[in-house]
## 1
Amino acid sequence: MGTAEVGFWEAVDEIRSRDGRYRREAYGFLMAALGATVQALPAERRGNSVTRHLSGQELLQGVIRLARQEFGRFAPVVFSEWGISSGEDIGCMVFQLVESKQLSARREDTIEDFRRGGELFEALTDKLDFGAGRPLDERHGRLSRPEPGTKG
């Protein structure tokens, strides 16, 4: 059977037999994030195969967006369990899928495109509310008590 005939999960299993850094679920999530990111593009861009192509940063932002939606504050824990700790890890997975002919890349696409995204775990949790909606008491590093007569 030729490489182009290999199904997605078979390709993932083959990738993982050579390089087991990332969990199988991570590849499925990456493809879901790719699909969601493409679907969120404006119709004009989505309808053109040239402009539909995502940059590494666009895909990385789509991965972060979907992870925040699906996993909320647990996104860093999930990613850590999957072996993902940086944007570069997402890029490695993308290029593994490109090599196995499950995704396509342009000549100008590089792993470097995924390194420019800053700290992945910070992006996964940026501005998420980890408390009960109450501000942190900065002096004591804990949630402050609500003022009398207010909801908290």
Note: The chain has a mean pLDDT of 83.
## 2
Amino acid sequence: MEDIVDTGQTLIKIIESMASLNPRSIKICTLIDKHERRNVKIDVDYSCFSLEKGFIVGYGLDYNEKYRNLPAIYDLKL
């Protein structure tokens, strides 16, 4: 379970580590599946939102240490 799948670098390492334990299956669940900066092949099984491009903030997601405390998720216009 992940808040946002962005580049996929961290998640692929976790998946590789978990796969070494020979589980029957590994499923990925994320709040936001962001495709713009993805640089590894990851299949997300469950996502609430899919974002092709852009930057989002709020609800724990920040931009330069700002906006993390917003009560919802917003599209940040840079």
Note: The chain has a mean pLDDT of 93.
